[in-house]
């Protein structure tokens, strides 16, 4: 019986694929989807025997049964949606419920740019050329979850920002799941193309409103062209009945800047995978993360920067705060090609354990084949400074508030490159909420 349960989701991915393909209106990706599923089937889900998943056990996810065809009906109210907003009156927002784009819940004023739901783009002959040029060209072809996503992707969005177009308003993308009686499996796919001289900022968040489990397998491809700027902020503050495996791939051309910020406050098991690929000189890449979790939650950050060209910079700064029996993982990699002279790469992971049962496994890595570079990496694991805590308490500040102030100061530098003020305020509010204090930092 144990062997059967372990294979529950694996078997479903094989058995449901024909029905999934029949549900699609446009079938130009069928052959690629079948090949991707075959690749996935050969390897199956990663286990703790795989080096990349050494500290992350996925059995809790893969032993469950899931519905691959979510019910479209929902009763999300405006009040429920308002609670998820950042107070962003001057934002655009895009709302997906149970995989479907809902324009009546969205506020889309994007001009001079091409925006489509991924489902619509798949069914539009006019976008086949774009798919041929971009889709699945930088996503890794040898990973279980990226292959599974390619086999089943249907939900998500496609955005192309033309040359020199500045999208003034940040775009908040909501993925909501509600009214699902069974555990539900989503394969979301996002494709962002930022052409020469263009600029855009995306905020992404996932929310499960049901007591049943949601497993989201998300793949995002970002293409940032010369002199362009793309910022992608992930707010992960979901329920204890949510699992998320996220792969984000960013390819940059010369003189471009791309940022991915990951703020993780909730979700039962979360695995974030980031791959930055440099394809020109004078590129800047930023990866920042703040994680605050408790109970028996697990968050795993895996990052990689591929310095393939000279005169480029990358910056990774991840802060973790762990309570109760929570578990954090950080594995950051920097690869410097032998021709990538004058590379400047910084990588840091700092962690605070607030409970005896909390654990962190951290492994920053450098692989350098060039000799004229500046590369540094480091990690720390510890507890709050007792002298600093005593200093604050001696001045009449409660223990909980003193801890919160020190932890805010600890995490603050991972927020320094957030340009969106409402987002910064929201992160500060979530910090206070997770640290169980009522205060403004």
Structure description:
The protein is globular and about 70 Å long. The N and C termini lie far apart (52 Å). The chain is built from 12 helices and 20 strands. A 10-stranded mixed β-sheet has the order 2-1-5-7-9-11-13-15-17-20, with helices on one face. Strands 3, 4, 6, 8, 10, 12, 14, 16, 18 and 19 form a 10-stranded mixed β-sheet that branches. The model is unreliable at 1-6 (pLDDT under 50). Helix content is 23%, strand content 37%. Strand 1 (92-97) and strand 2 (100-101) form a beta hairpin. With 441 residues, it is of the alpha/beta class.
Write a short abstract of this structure:
The protein is α/β, with parallel strands linked by helices and 441 residues long. It is 23% helix and 37% strand.
Number of beta-strand segments: 20
Taking pLDDT < 50 over at least 5 consecutive residues as the criterion, the unreliable ranges are 1-6
Distance linking N and C termini? 52 Å
Strand order of the largest sheet: 2-1-5-7-9-11-13-15-17-20
C-alpha-based Rg, rounded: 21 Å
Biggest sheet layout: 10 strands, mixed
Task: Give the overall average pLDDT.
Answer: 92
Number of continuous helical runs: 12
> Helical percent range?
10-25%
The percent range for strand residues is: 35-45%
Q: SS-based structural class?
A: alpha/beta
Q: Tell me the overall shape.
A: globular
């Amino acid at each position: 019986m144990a062997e059967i349960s372990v294979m529950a989701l694996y078997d479903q991915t094989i058995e449901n694929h024909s029905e999934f393909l029949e549900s699609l209106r446009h079938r130009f990706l069928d052959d690629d989807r079948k090949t991707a599923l075959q690749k996935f089937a050969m390897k199956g889900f990663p286990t703790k025997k795989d080096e990349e998943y050494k500290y992350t056990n996925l059995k809790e996810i893969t032993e469950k049964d899931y519905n691959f065809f979510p019910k479209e009906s929902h009763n999300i109210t405006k009040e429920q949606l308002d609670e998820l907003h950042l107070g962003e009156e001057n934002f655009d927002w895009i709302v997906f419920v149970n995989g479907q784009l809902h324009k009546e819940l969205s506020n889309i004023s994007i001009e001079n740019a091409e925006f489509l739901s991924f489902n619509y783009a798949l069914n539009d002959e006019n976008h086949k050329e774009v798919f041929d040029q971009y889709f699945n060209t930088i996503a890794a072809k040898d990973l279980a979850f990226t292959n599974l996503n390619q086999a089943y992707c249907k939900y998500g969005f496609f955005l192309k920002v033309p040359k020199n177009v500045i999208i003034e308003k940040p775009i908040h993308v909501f993925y909501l799941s509600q009214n699902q009686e069974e555990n539900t499996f989503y394969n979301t796919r996002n494709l962002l193309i930022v052409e020469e001289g263009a600029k855009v900022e995306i905020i992404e968040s996932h929310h499960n409103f049901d007591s049943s489990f949601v497993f989201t397998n998300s793949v995002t491809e970002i293409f940032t062209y010369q002199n362009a700027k793309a910022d992608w902020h992930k707010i992960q503050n979901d329920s204890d009945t949510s699992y998320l495996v996220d792969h984000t791939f960013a390819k940059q051309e010369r003189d471009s800047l791309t940022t991915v910020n990951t703020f993780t406050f909730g979700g039962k098991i979360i695995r974030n995978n980031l791959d930055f690929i440099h394809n020109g000189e004078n590129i800047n890449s930023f990866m920042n993360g703040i994680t605050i979790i408790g109970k028996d939650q697990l968050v795993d950050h895996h990052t990689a920067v591929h310095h393939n060209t000279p005169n480029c910079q990358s910056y990774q700064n991840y802060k973790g705060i762990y309570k109760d029996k929570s578990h954090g993982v950080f594995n950051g990699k920097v690869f410097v090609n032998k021709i990538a002279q004058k590379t400047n790469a910084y990588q840091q992971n700092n962690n605070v354990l607030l409970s005896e049962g909390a654990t962190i496994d951290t492994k920053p890595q450098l692989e350098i084949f060039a000799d004229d570079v500046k590369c540094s990496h480091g990690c720390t694991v510890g507890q709050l400074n007792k002298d600093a805590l005593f200093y604050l308490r001696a001045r009449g500040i409660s223990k909980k508030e003193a801890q919160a102030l020190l932890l805010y100061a600890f995490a603050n530098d991972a927020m320094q490159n957030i340009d969106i003020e409402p987002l910064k305020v929201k992160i500060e509010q979530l910090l206070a909420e997770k640290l169980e204090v009522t205060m403004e930092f």
